[in-house]
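Inverse folding, one chain.
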């Protein structure tokens, strides 16, 4: 069965970016020249996803406007002969988008549950736009290939230093092929004794049974309905796999990760990279206060 639908939870408050995110959704902050969320949407599209389901909340209408057709803007660009820019705008709005609201930010598990009726009864992808992954093969495509093999839920994981495991969902499991693990449990942000250093990154393929699991679990770490707790519940009835993907990942939901992603992506952009690299090399690279 192919994966046709992808859910993008985007209802969080983005408090780590305040005051920038007071009136602008975090998902709309620009990485070079595209809003954060567009990178994950493009990754999904180039991995064969046909339907994009975005979970929004209060103050997030700019996301809907961004992916909508802008007739006035498009005819202006056509008139002015700016056809390259026109193409970049048209391509993305041709995808099929659906939106639903999470009325209260009760946690990632709850946000995914809001897509239940739109997903219906088929396996689907979840992408967290905060995780920007620069890779040769789109990470979601790497996961859908694994899904085709194992026919079960697949979580993207990455090895992190042990002193950072408390920041992530961490999996326990057995490596059955290089990079592929059969999961036996997950712990959300372990304070001590992490079961491994394999951290869950924001890309998942989930079977629709996850919705029953989300219904069963209550609030977990941080008082939120956690997707990791629901996956733990799913493990009682189904196999779940974790895959160490290939690619450089940036946590763009965090200021430092966002800056690193901006610099790294800009350095790769024709027409920007060379001058930026020259500028960085010319800087006095000691941290300083002005
Ligand atoms: P985060 O906790 O990293 O993002 O949630 P946040 O809440 O937006 O940002 P901070 O921590 O306050 O700075 C991970 C992802 O899950 C979504 C967020 O929008 C983000 O994409 N999310 C989280 C929801 O959609 N609803 C929730 O209730 C919680």
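Residues assigned per position:
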């Amino acid at each position: 069965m192919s994966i046709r639908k992808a859910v993008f939870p985007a209802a969080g408050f983005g408090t780590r970016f305040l005051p920038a995110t007071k009136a602008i959704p975090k998902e709309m902050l620009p990485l070079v020249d595209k809003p954060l969320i567009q990178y994950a949407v493009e990754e999904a599209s180039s991995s064969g996803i046909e339907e994009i389901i975005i979970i929004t909340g209060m103050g997030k209408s700019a996301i809907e406007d961004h992916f909508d057709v802008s007739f006035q803007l498009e005819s202006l660009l056509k008139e002015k002969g700016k056809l390259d820019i026109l193409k970049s705008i048209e391509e993305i709005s041709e995808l099929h988008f659906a939106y639903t609201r999470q009325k209260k930010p009760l946690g990632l598990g709850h946000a995914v549950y809001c897509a239940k009726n739109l997903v219906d009864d088929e396996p689907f992808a979840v992408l967290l736009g905060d995780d920007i992954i620069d890779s040769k093969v789109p990470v979601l495509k790497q996961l859908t290939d694994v899904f085709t093999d194992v026919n079960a839920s697949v979580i993207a994981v990455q090895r992190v230093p042990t002193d950072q495991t408390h920041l992530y969902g961490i999996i326990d499991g057995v490596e059955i092929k290089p990079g592929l693990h059969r999961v036996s449990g997950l712990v959300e942000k372990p304070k001590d004794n992490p079961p491994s250093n394999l951290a869950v990154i924001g890309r998942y393929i989930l079977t629709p049974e996850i919705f029953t699991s989300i219904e069963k679990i209550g609030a977990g770490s941080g008082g939120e309905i956690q997707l990791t707790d629901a996956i733990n519940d799913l493990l009682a009835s189904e196999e779940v796999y974790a895959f160490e993907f290939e690619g450089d990942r940036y946590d763009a939901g965090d200021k430092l990760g966002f800056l690193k992603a901006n610099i790294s992506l800009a350095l790769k952009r024709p027409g920007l990279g060379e001058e930026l690299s020259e500028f960085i090399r010319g800087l006095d690279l000691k941290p300083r206060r002005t």
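DSSP finds eleven helices and 13 strands in the chain. Residues 9-16, 26, 55, 102, 105-108, 110-111, 128-130, 253 surround uridine 5'-triphosphate (CB under 6 Å).
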